[in-house]
Amino acid sequence: MKRTPARQKAQQLAHYFQKEKPDYVYLKEVFRHLRTELEVEVPKSGQKKLPVVPSEAEIQRYYEVVWQARNVQDMLIIKTLLYTGVRVGELINIQLQDLDLDRCQIRINQGKGSKDRIVPFPSKFRETLAVHIEQMRIKRATHLFESRLKKPYTDRGIRKILNRYVQAAGLAHPISPHKFRHFLLTWLKKQGIDDALLQPYSGHATRQSLEIYSRLAIGDAQDAYDQVIDDFPI
Questions:
Q1: What does residue 152 show for φ and ψ, rounded to 5 degrees?
Q2: pTM value?
Q3: What are the structural domains, with CATH classification, of the chain?
Q4: Which of 6, 91, 152, 166 could form an SS bridge with 143, CB 3.0 to 4.6 Å?
């Protein structure tokens, strides 16, 4: 059966409702019931697109190229991004006073959502950072990372450093600071770290925001499932 054009149908319904002088809330409720009577389902919104996350092999290959270049500050920048998962805007604003070498922590001031938080780094990274911090203090720097012009790096400057090594590493996709962040959080999820522990560290507003990393680890979960399912008791 041919349908009446939507605008024409709306005019017909308007004539029907006109005497009742309906408001928005009433019309919304009427059409909700109308959908139920006609068994019309509301389409579900599509799932968020999963980010492209580098594999462990790609990260290892990438860092090997960085290591071979022997640029110490580049190595420190990339290690800091990988170890902490900070956003690029947060990285460039880290000041020397924000590091607690005794506790292996970095304070992120006014991160996403204008919130402060603490991120950890491995104890094995502490000595390297301590040497770098001392060198920066001798140069009278204020930020953890500064360019040759003795100014904090820009967002663009950090991205240029990362992309410098992509081609040499033979990676199919460009590397961005956010991909390092995705890699770290996904890897932590694979190790069984609970969302409740990841949330304050990652800076996500809700635990629901972390569900995307659970879905990213599903391939590994499937492999583990296949290895044990034959021993299932039924």
A1: -60, 145
A2: 0.69
A3: 56-176 (1.10.443.10)
A4: 152
